[in-house]
Amino acid sequence: MARSQPTDGKKLQRQLFAGFFRVGMLGYGGGPASIPLIQKEAVDTYQWMDEEEFADILAIGNTLPGPIATKMAGYIGWRKAGALGMANAIAASVVPTVILMVILLVSLASFREYSWVQGMTQGVLPVVAVMLGVLTWSFLKKASVSMGGTAAAGLAVVSAVLIEWLGLHPAFLIAALILIVLGRRSRT
């Protein structure tokens, strides 16, 4: 479970900044690629929340517009340290990206035709795919425990079909699932 949280507000602000700064610096590939990094910081490194709460935040965050990494940073910062924590976590996750974008775009623009630059950008894709795969497997294992392996696998297959082959936006699927769960809860 969660370790005791620092009572020193400055220490907590430093931890929020450090955790989300690392996410901002290493989250190559955009918001979805940052999710496993946020999970590592929030659940494993600082233990600000457990896996179940993280999964809930991720599910709800995906139904809202905007970048998922920023929404998660904002919520986790708010939850741990109020408005200042929210601003701190968002700044820490966004500032590295802005700085790196300016530096990289200026630098790489003059080298974009070189094969090593193209290889660099293409080489990151498999790493991001593995990170997302590990996160997906982790969520499937948790879902299998709570809803049963067959139900979890069936939901994963139906979701893949709806999203990939029928073109349904994931937010609509997540919203529908939330409504189904809420509807079942109100009946019980």
Question: What would you say this structure looks like, in words?
Answer:
It is found in: Cell membrane. It holds the Pfam family Chromate_transp. This protein has helices at residues 9-26, 31-45, 51-63, 68-109, 115-147, 149-165, 170-187. It is globular and about 60 Å long. It has a domain at 9-111. The chain has 188 residues and is mainly α. 20% of the residues are buried. The model has no long low-confidence stretch (mean pLDDT 86). The chain contains seven helices and no strands. The protein is 83% helix and 0% strand.
Biggest beta sheet attributes: none
Order of helices and strands: HHHHHHH
Name the beta content range: under 5%
Shape assignment: globular
Number of helices: 7
Poorly predicted tracts of residues? none
Number of strands: 0
Class derived from helix and strand content: mainly alpha
Q: Compute the average pLDDT.
A: 86
